[in-house]
Every structure is written in structure tokens, then in C-alpha cells.
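dumping this here so i dont lose it
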């Protein structure tokens, strides 16, 4: 089985691009996206914060500060990583609250 960094390198070879990644954050990778012709490694922000809390012994504020300045704040001219923020759980409205027609009344 291939490790995450090896997978990133194999995708980079396949698409013939340099993919910028953070090897120490391999456990925080969630995928690779293509946007406007460039490929980017996608990291989970919350996993990165938890990684720094676990490995560095930092509290959440310290981990966020490090992430904001040293990870997300890194500037890349092309092919830099992107950071996923999860949406909160979405609760569908209860159909009985709005009626059969979704709350729209006809004349």
C-alpha cells in the first residue's frame, strides 16, 4: 500500500505538475482537486489543528495561530495547497412546517 506522500508524487507525475505539499501533514490530506487547469493538494483544516495540538502540545488558539501564519499564510505562485473547511450539518426543514407546497400559497 502506498503512503499519502507517495500517492501525491504519483499524481504529480501523472499530471506533469509540481504539487506543493507538507509531508509532516500527510495524515491531514483529503484529496487533490483540479481548478483552472492546476492541481492542488487538499488538506482538512480541522485535522491540521488537531495534528498540531497532538504533536506540539498546543492549545487550539496556538495551533490556529501557527496554521494561519505558517501554513495557510505561505505564499505559492502556482500549485499551492488548499484548505477545506467543513460545512456545519445541514438540517432539512420539516415538510409539515411548511405545508405540502413548501409554504408557497396559490390564489
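and the seq i came up w/
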Amino acid at each position: 500500500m502506498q503512503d499519502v506522500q507517495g500517492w501525491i508524487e504519483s499524481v504529480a507525475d501523472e499530471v506533469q505538475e509540481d504539487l506543493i505539499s507538507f509531508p509532516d501533514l500527510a495524515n491531514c490530506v483529503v484529496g487533490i482537486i483540479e481548478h483552472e487547469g492546476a492541481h492542488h493538494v487538499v488538506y482538512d483544516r480541522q485535522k491540521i489543528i488537531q495534528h498540531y495540538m497532538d504533536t506540539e502540545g498546543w492549545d487550539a488558539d496556538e495551533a490556529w495561530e501557527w496554521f494561519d501564519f505558517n501554513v495557510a499564510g505561505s505564499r505559492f505562485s502556482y500549485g499551492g495547497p488548499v484548505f477545506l473547511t467543513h460545512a456545519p450539518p445541514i438540517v432539512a426543514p420539516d415538510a409539515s412546517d411548511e405545508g405540502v407546497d413548501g409554504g408557497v400559497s396559490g390564489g
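The helical segments are 4-15, 45-56, 60-71, 95-98.
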